[in-house]
Amino acid sequence: MGDKQLKSEIEKRRTFAIISHPDAGKTTLTEKFLLYGGAINLAGSVKGKATARHAVSDWMDIEKERGISVTSSVLQFSYDGFCINILDTPGHQDFSEDTYRTLMAADSAVMVIDAAKGVEPQTRKLFKVCAMRRIPIFTFMNKLDRDAKDPFELLDDIENELGIPTCPMNWPIGSGKGFKGVYDRAGRTVVVYSDTVKGTREGHAEIIPIEDKDRLLEILGDAAFEKLMEDVELLDGAGSGFDQEEVDAGLLSPVFFGSALTNFGVEIFLRNFLKMTSPPLARRSDAGVIDPVSDDFSAFVFKIQANMNKAHRDRIAFMRICSGKYTAQMEVLHVQGQKVMRLSQPQQMMASERHVVDEAYAGDIIGVFDPGIFSIGDTVCSPGAGFRYEGIPTFAPEHFARVRQVDTMKRKQFVKGITQIAQEGAIQIFHELGTGLEEIIVGVVGVLQFEVLKYRLENEYNVEIKMDMLPYEHIRWIVNTDIDIDKLTGTSDMKKVTDLKDRPLLLFINSWSIGMTLERNEGLELEEFSRN
Ligand code: G4P
Question: Does the CB atom of residue 12 touch ligand 1 within 6 A?
Fold first, then answer.
């Protein structure tokens, strides 16, 4: 393959995640994207949404029945000459550390916000992880067909809550029953709202130049027209213009207003977003920054999914290709294991079907069967290359429980099982400082992981466990490890623990205690995630 073809394949790739608080409209927006890409015929078939909302026990059954759900990991389709990979960031019940890890594989993020609610807790958490990587973040302000907050207030909310300046690309005219459309700032036109809930494409909206006062007055009415003129003046005067470099650096978020459900503003958003977002980004490794357009293939494992089905005890390792091209049967080096191997049955998702991949490029995600050799963060590359990508951070869990085995005779199996599950990255385990192995504290990002732990220990290790929930909600890694842990003084609720790698951490019940502890211990530095 010529360099040119490799370059063009890689440069047309756009790999991104859609982040949102549950119910903001992530699934609906994804469906519309797929619809425009021709990947599905009618919106509504992205994934069994019901699955995500099922009670825990049902979820287990479903997971058992369908084995590993590759479906919910990545969707690939083409649109407008681009090859798009949308990474799924599970929310609802299956929010877990995997959701954060998936963001490590994205080159940009689309943040969907419910315009009636503004920034919500889960958006905030996911945003933080994206901001840490400085990837471009685009905002889709959704549900304008319902009564929404004032748009200026919504932008202030993003700037104050998330600390990122915004640049509105279009501007809503009213909301809910009074929603008339959006003003496109670059084109200086008004795109008139048309409700096409059942349409397969965006409706043929009327577009009126801002100078055409008569037609605007006719469509918008006096009040909405006046308000629009005022808003436009305010916006133009505010001077927060679009700056591609700032967007690339993750320092400015372009904002689009629309309504995913009624197909309004979605296609315009998609088109603009694809132009403004980044092709596969170069990544840091121990051999320097690796250019995606390279003859050497390389990828890193960002997520490992264990099969819940007893009959198929295999796992799937999801890899993000970072450079070069993958071809079926090619030999690769698993750097951490120092083994040359062939990847087993790499799979990719095309809309709703799983298929074996013959070739894939930087930007793509493949899932390979893992006989238990891969760990999260591992690098796989062409045998001659041999470098390692930077590891994936460990993210702070928010739910904690003290866990012990019911039958004291089964201590060994219990410790083995819980340690293995922690090494896979499904849960994190901590020991109270000075108590040895006796007390195990489990931390998880999403509460469902507790159920998964219980289920897997019972089924795979034959160990019954008892869990006592702990009131802690915050955990922080101590950055300056030279500090004398014994001498640290915190609030009375603070607990000192160590993780699997023996790193010291502090557990807190509330964020106020974190502040107090920092105040009382000069020089102490705490971090919400730990670089591995
Ligand atoms: P999520 O993936 O972020 O959790 O959100 P999802 O797309 O599932 O949307 C949550 C609810 O909001 C759905 O309604 C969906 O139809 C609705 N919704 C999404 N976008 C819009 C929009 O632009 N306008 C309006 N009015 N509603 C929107 P639901 O009743 O909970 O589910 P369903 O029965 O319609 O699937």
Answer: no
